[in-house]
Specification:
single chain, 176 residues, alpha+beta, two-stranded antiparallel sheet, 3 helices, globular, binds nickel (II) ion
């Protein structure tokens, strides 16, 4: 069966993920599925548990539309076992949505800049800085790998989740 997007309260979304020990053909097939689901869902990022695999893999891509800031563009990236190795003290706060929590937006304070280390699908180690929207997507997706969701940043978490069932999807904000 084709993998598909999972939404809260599926328990895999709140479970910390496992490291990828070897990049097998199954892992590459999973990555293809992640990219497909991210694009079909018009998200700018997706983490493996969001399609049912509790593994440390994220994909991200943002092609700015006519109303988006063109400097926010992020080319397709696949990050395996990613780690934030440093982050700026300077932060900003923006409303975020999540494909796995349709209809919920939460203001989230994040570092403006991060430095990331990860494996690529061919097994090479890469290290790179990310700024602005790119840094925000990475921090959001890496939270998924720890079983952390945007609602964990809300002081009204319980209330938000209780309203969740009746809320409708919003297209006002980027969904990560
Ligand atoms: Ni998300």
């Amino acid at each position: 069966m084709a993998r598909h997007l999972l939404t809260y309260p599926n328990p895999i979304l709140t479970t910390p993920t496992n490291k990828v020990s070897e990049i097998t053909s199954d892992i590459l097939a999973l990555i293809d599925d992640m990219v497909r689901v991210m694009r079909e869902s018009q998200g700018v990022g997706l983490a493996a548990p969001q399609i049912g695999e509790s593994l440390k893999i994220v994909v991200l891509e943002h092609i700015p539309g006519p109303k988006d800031d063109p400097t926010d563009a992020v080319p397709l990236q696949v990050l395996i076992n990613p780690k934030i190795i440093s982050r700026s003290q300077e932060t900003d706060t923006l409303e975020e949505g999540c494909l796995s929590l349709p209809g919920i937006d939460v203001p989230v304070e994040r570092s403006k800049r991060v430095k990331v280390r990860a494996l690529t699908p061919i097994g090479a180690t890469v290290q790179f800085p990310a700024n602005g929207f790119h840094a925000r997507i990475i921090q959001h997706e890496l939270d998924h790998l720890d079983g952390k969701l945007i609602t964990d940043y809300s002081p009204n978490k319980a209330e938000l989740l209780s309203r969740y069932a009746s809320s409708s999807a919003s297209d006002e904000h980027a969904v990560l």
